[in-house]
Structures are given as structure tokens and as C-alpha cells.
Design a protein that fits this description.
This protein is α+β, with helices and mostly antiparallel strands and 342 residues long. It has three domains: 105 residues, no CATH class; 64 residues, SH3 type barrels (Roll); 85 residues, Alpha-Beta Plaits (2-Layer Sandwich), CATH 3.30.70.100. The chain contains eleven helices and eight strands. Helix 10 crosses helix 11.
């Protein structure tokens, strides 16, 4: 091998590297300036994530143009170019989707709409990513001559294989269509508070095949998305996140119900979780030994109403212990506490 044949590839690689680095620097500079001028959208800043695949596409294209021979190196460059192009398309799609969601979330005051759009754009992004990867993989396989021959022979039996694949993937396809139905049917969204299998929590993730619910004790329940299109479940965030909660006490028949109503109002004034919409207290049941007293309170969302119920229950019991101990249930083995005077 002479010096010229060895020096020429080195010069080509070095020139490609220099051109690629300069182009990457210029692209990053333009995106940073565009991001500074257009602060109303994060698109230009998010597009800076596309710099690595862009550099790979540019370098591979330059090397392929300089090589121009259909040998093993040229085939490898073609495969790298296809893969890097798919990577670049995925990054661009992610930047556009994230920018669209960020602008909508900043302009929309309604949390329910924001969560609905977040669910939809997340699933759209995953669908586009899956399509790009599948198409890129198929094109890369078709660059191998044996695969083209095999593909021609497989077309004759495509109908039979399609039926077999459809039967085998019936469950997966059902989950796929259920995921699209959830995304655009607005039945459940990321961030919704739901109750499934007697467990309540918030929807943390929705994919094309499964849905993850994070419970109050940080457990994750993963379920197929078809569950939410074929079975009943509770969605506490539909129609608004406001919740009504109940608090029960089992007390003696001599309990001062009227005083408890007044005390409930005083307690709620000092509890920030109460949203002020409504509150009430009533005797809902009675037994030979006790009565059942129920308080109804309201809060902005499911997490807050749980905290509110616990606070009301604890503070009312403390007040009864301190000021009206005779109202607590007891076994009459000794003389009972006399009720207070008028």
C-alpha cells in the first residue's frame, strides 16, 4: 500500500470531522440565539437535543459521498445513516411534542385539559417513535440481498401469516386500540385519581399497552389499558377534582350533637384543607348502646380530603375527651357522668 492510498482516507476522515464539528457548532449557536429571541416557546432549546444525531447524520453522509463504493464499508455507512436518521426524527418529534405541551400547559388554566393533552401527546409521541423504528429497521434489513429474496417469497404467504399473527396478537392489538381510545376518548388521563380493584391512587403513566397507578403508599399497580375500556372503575377526577368526605364517630346517647355542630364549624375554620364549600353534622344511626354521628366536609381533591377527614376526626375526639367525656361510648359498670346543666 503506497503513501497516497493511505493518506487519502485519513484526509477524508479528518476533513469530515472538521466540517461536522463546525456545522454542529453553528447549529448550536443558531438554536441558542433563536431560543433567546423566542422565550415564549421552549422549542428551540429542546431542538438542541438533536445535535448528536444531526452530527452523526452529517458525518455519515459526507463519508458515504466520498467513499462511493458498494463494499462492506459502504454498506455499513448506509446502515449507520438509516439508524441515525431515525434517531434524528425521534428527537425532533420529541422536541415538537414537548414544546407543544409546555406552551399549552402555560396558557391553559384548567388542570383537567392540561392532563388530557399530556396523555394524548405522550401516546402520539410513542406511536410516532414506534413507527419510525419499525420503518428504519425494515429498510435496514432490505439492504441485505438475502433478505430481499426472502421478502419476495414471503409475499405469497402473507395472507396466511397475517391471519395467524392477528390471532396470536389479538390481546396486544386489543391493548393497542384501547390505548388510543383512552388517549382520544378522554376517559382517563395522567394525573387522574382512580380506584381499581379496591385500591385508589393516581395515574402515573399511560402507554399503548399498559397503565400504571401509583397508590398513596407509593406502590405501583400496572394494568393492561384494556381494563379501563372493558370494566367499571372509579375516576374521582372526572367532572372536577373536588371531593366530599365523611367522618364517623360512635358515641354515647348523651353526646351533645348541637354543640358538636358548632365545634365542627370552629374546627374547620382552623384547618386549611377545607375549601369552605359545605359542612354538616347529623346522627345517621343508633344502636342500644351508641349513636352514629356523621360529619360531611369538602376539599379541593382526593388527597386533601383524606387529610381533612383525619384532622376533623382527631380534633373532635380531643375536644370530646377534654370537655365532654360522658359522650364517649362506655360500658355501664359504674355510675355514669351526669350531663351538664342547661
Amino acid at each position: 500500500m503506497d503513501t497516497d492510498s493511505l493518506l487519502r482516507p485519513l484526509v477524508a476522515v479528518a476533513g469530515t470531522l472538521v466540517v461536522t464539528l463546525i456545522a454542529g457548532w453553528l447549529l448550536d449557536l443558531l438554536l441558542r440565539r433563536a431560543d433567546a429571541r423566542h422565550s415564549e416557546t421552549p422549542l428551540w432549546g429542546l431542538l438542541r437535543r438533536c445535535r448528536p444525531p444531526f452530527l452523526l447524520v452529517l458525518a455519515t453522509s459526507l463519508l458515504q459521498g466520498l467513499h462511493r463504493r458498494q463494499d462492506g464499508l459502504g454498506h455499513a455507512l448506509t446502515l449507520i445513516l438509516m439508524a441515525s436518521t431515525a434517531w434524528l426524527l425521534v428527537r425532533i418529534t420529541a422536541a415538537v411534542v414537548d414544546s407543544t405541551y409546555a406552551r399549552y400547559a402555560a396558557d391553559s388554566p384548567e388542570d383537567a385539559r392540561v392532563r388530557r393533552v399530556r396523555t394524548q401527546v405522550t401516546l402520539i409521541q410513542r406511536v410516532v417513535t414506534a413507527v419510525v423504528i419499525v420503518v428504519a429497521a425494515a429498510l435496514m434489513l432490505l439492504t441485505f440481498p438475502p433478505m430481499r429474496t426472502v421478502g419476495t417469497s414471503m409475499l405469497a404467504s402473507a395472507g396466511v401469516l397475517g391471519i395467524v399473527a392477528g390471532i396470536a396478537a389479538q390481546s396486544s392489538l386489543g391493548n393497542l386500540f384501547a390505548g388510543l381510545q383512552i388517549a382520544f376518548g378522554d376517559t382517563v388521563r395522567i394525573g387522574d385519581t382512580v380506584v381499581v380493584d379496591k385500591e385508589w391512587g393516581k395515574v402515573e403513566e399511560i402507554t399503548l399497552t399498559f397503565l400504571t397507578v401509583r397508590t398513596w403508599d407509593e406502590r405501583r399497580i400496572t394494568m393492561p389499558v384494556s381494563y379501563f375500556t372493558s370494566k367499571p372503575y372509579e375516576n374521582w377526577s372526572r367532572g372536577g377534582a373536588q371531593m366530599t368526605g365523611t367522618v364517623f364517630w360512635h358515641l354515647d346517647h348523651s353526646a351533645p350533637v348541637d354543640l358538636m355542630r358548632e365545634q365542627l364549624q370552629r374546627l374547620l375554620q382552623d384547618i386549611p384543607e377545607w375549601d369552605g364549600r359545605t359542612s354538616s353534622l347529623a346522627v345517621t344511626d343508633t344502636t342500644p348502646n351508641t349513636i352514629q354521628v356523621r360529619a360531611v366536609v369538602t376539599a379541593p381533591d382526593a388527597d386533601t380530603v383524606w387529610t381533612l377527614r383525619c384532622a376533623v376526626r382527631e380534633r373532635m375526639i380531643t375536644w370530646l375527651l377534654t370537655d365532654h367525656p360522658y359522650a364517649l361510648p362506655h360500658v355501664a359498670t359504674t355510675e355514669a357522668f351526669p350531663p351538664p346543666g342547661p
